[in-house]
Design a protein that fits this description.
- By secondary structure, the chain is mostly beta strands.
- The chain is elongated and about 105 Å long.
Amino acid sequence: MLTYQNAIGGYTQQGYAFQGLNRGPFGHAGAFFDTENLTGEDAPVTRTRDRRKKMRTLLPGAELFGHDALGWISGTGVYYGGQQVGEVNAGRHQIIPMGARFVIFPDKKAFNTQTGEMETLENRVSIAGTVTYTACDLMGEAIPAGSAVYAKLSAEGIGAGFSENDVVTIAQSEIIAEGMYQIYSVTADSFVILATLDEDETTGTGIQITRDVPDMDFVTECDNRLWGCSSANHEVYACALGDPKNWRKYQGLANDAYAVTVGSPGAFTGAGVHNGYVLFFKSDRILKLFGSRPSNYQLTDTEAAGIDPGSEKSVATLDGVLFYLSPHGVMAYDGGLPASAHGAFYGQKFENAVSCCGFDSLYISMESGGKRSLYTFRGGIWHREDESGLSDLHLANGTLYGVDGQGNLWRLKGGDENYAAEDAAEEETIPWKAETGDLDMMAMFKKHLRKIQVRYALSEGAEMTVSVSTDGGPFKTYFVRTGAKQVKAETFNIIPKRCDHMRIRLSGQGEVKLFNLYYTVDAGSEL
């Protein structure tokens, strides 16, 4: 008599409402260990990203800026709207918008988009010859010495580059004390300051007048002021209200400049603004500024995950939340303590991040293991686009741009800008991939994959390949499909060897939409 044997059971796992990346140890059909050139913009459906367009070629290391038009720094040239507007030193820059200006550090220059002029924030005039000191009124009209509280300093070129209300440092003068003075009126050859003279005098010993800007590691803009920080001096600074040229104006007024010493150790790693509050970051601290004027500014210091060194350009705001790369991964800051937005990566280490927000998504380019990839975050879902090596990202005039490591300027999303185009060429086709993690790691027994079911839509001429890897081995291709625009729900019968775990990879080229993914497994024993 034959012994009755129970049938081996099977089960089906289904994946819908795709959850993007999940690099955890237990894969499932609704998320992917890796993606390539897919986006969650149509969630819960996942699809290929929009086609990019190469606009022109800049120099490697080019940096982007702009608002109504796109600007860039390529080598030592500064360009705006396709035209060169100035020059800076080579190297890494910070480009901060402030009204009609874009202020460039560490060069301490500002490009005015309304006038088209490139301005220098600092100014230094040294007179080696004769300087005349005359007692005067506020407007510079001469009055008897001893009764006047203002002094007019005159020499050829002494006022060049200075403006009314500048606060300057005067040195190397034998007539007035060395120190800071406000300029009340100015011409090319004279200026008026607050100083008392016993008598009018002319001296040939010369003078030096300086309007300087602090050396700062990171700079941001908030409430019509530039804010910066210095690790060397352990200080935080703000320029005078609306005036990026003046950082030494301390007169007890609401429009004064501001400076404060910071007590916590460690170097600054970045700066940003969230909901009207200025933030300075160290790798393990967040410093937040409260107040409305210099007389009531207060700087709080909180121990929390700050910005990872080298990722100061990762700061970007999406839906009222500030995102940045910390030593512990991507963080989301809503004004309290930052929370991790890095869960999908399961501790994967990234560095040297740059980011930009646009089209309801966070775009962030990060390095890991020597490779730089572009990731998108939307609705809590991560996707990896590709290893295009984008070194800078920027949104200008409704168009998202990126520069890769070779200096190629790409339109990533949005409309074309004619001033950026130079031998422009759009991508012809897009390679894509959606690969699950290790499936059925929770089941202790051997099993084999019986079938895969996919609902998909391929554009005409597009292609999809269905592949499977068992127990960490190489992927084996089982089916290839070519698209014809219609939505299809198809069952792919698989007969691989029995295994402990498996991965499913859908890949191809051209435009695709993935609606859901099912797979059916026949269970087995531990043998």
